[in-house]
């Protein structure tokens, strides 16, 4: 079953006389439970494509459907609610709230969803331990290393039990052991909870674990390989 479909999606920036195509006529289908890596050189359109699939950025042309919903037909408030209920994001720049602790950042979406304090506490504790930073729960982002902040960002993305996780270079600031542990956790959730993962990455460790690898160049899909 396809849960994400893009049809002739384009993102064009007109910064000068010549338009720049960040994403150029991309059509793809992602099935429920896929573990997919989107790869390609810097500037190939990986992050832009993920942002459009997640409703953070609107395409210049084409259509995007996620879980049967046409994102193009939704207003900003509808998109916010849809993302909150369905999509977990891991940003390359973390996007943590500076005044909140690791624990508070992780539970933030669950708080917006109206989850009970007991459910929030149990889920957050479980996730922070799983990503290896349970001892950092009371620290704010400014008191943590980049790698620790990245793990908080991953825990936050998973906290609301989303159907989809869109991760932009999720292992970029992690040492080898932390990256391996994080990918193992994501694979476990993928298999046990059927969470669909789409990664933008240069990391060979992510590519090796992915069951599908989509290669972009100059905003276009030039290769789409499934393993096994």
Question: What's the CATH architecture?
Answer: 3-Layer(aba) Sandwich
Low-confidence stretches: none
Q: Report the C-alpha radius of gyration, rounded.
A: 17 Å
Helicity range: 25-40%
Along the chain, the helix and strand elements come as EEEHEEHEHHHEHEHEE
List the helices and strands and how they pair.
Layout: E1 2-13, E2 20-31, E3 35-39, H1 46-53, E4 61-66, E5 69-70, H2 76-86, E6 87-90, H3 102-112, H4 117-130, H5 146-159, E7 164-168, H6 176-193, E8 196-200, H7 204-209, E9 212-217, E10 220-226
Parallel strand pairs: 3-8, 3-9, 6-7, 7-8
Antiparallel strand pairs: 1-2, 1-4, 4-5, 9-10
Characterization of the model:
By secondary structure, the chain is of the alpha/beta class. It has one domain (2-226): P-loop containing nucleotide triphosphate hydrolases (Rossmann fold), CATH 3.40.50. It is built from seven helices and ten strands. The chain has a six-stranded mixed beta sheet with strand order 6-7-8-3-9-10, sandwiched between helices. A four-stranded antiparallel beta sheet has the order 2-1-4-5, covered by helices on one side. Strand 9 (212-217) and strand 10 (220-226) form a beta hairpin. The longest helix has 18 residues, at 176-193.
């Amino acid at each position: 079953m396809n849960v994400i479909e893009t049809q002739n999606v384009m993102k064009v920036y007109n910064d000068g006389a010549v338009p720049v195509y960040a994403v150029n006529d991309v059509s793809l289908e992602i099935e429920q439970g896929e573990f997919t890596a989107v790869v390609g050189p810097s500037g190939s359109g990986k992050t832009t494509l993920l942002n459009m699939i997640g409703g953070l950025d609107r395409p210049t042309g084409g259509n995007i459907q996620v879980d049967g919903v046409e994102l193009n037909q939704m207003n900003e408030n509808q998109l916010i609610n849809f993302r909150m209920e369905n999509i977990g994001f891991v940003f390359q720049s973390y996007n943590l709230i500076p005044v909140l602790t690791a624990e508070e950042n992780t539970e933030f979406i669950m708080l917006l969803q109206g989850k009970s304090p007991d459910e929030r506490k149990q889920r957050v504790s479980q996730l922070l331990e799983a990503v290896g930073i349970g001892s950092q729960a009371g620290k704010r982002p400014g008191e943590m290393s980049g790698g620790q902040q990245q793990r908080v960002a991953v825990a936050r993305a998973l906290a609301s039990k989303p159907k989809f996780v869109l991760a932009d270079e999720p292992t970029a600031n992690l040492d080898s052991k932390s990256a391996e542990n994080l990918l193992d956790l994501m694979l476990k959730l993928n298999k046990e909870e059927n969470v669909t993962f789409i990664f933008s990455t240069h990391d060979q460790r992510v590519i090796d674990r992915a069951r599908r690898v989509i290669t972009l160049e100059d905003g276009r899909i030039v290769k789409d390989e499934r393993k096994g």
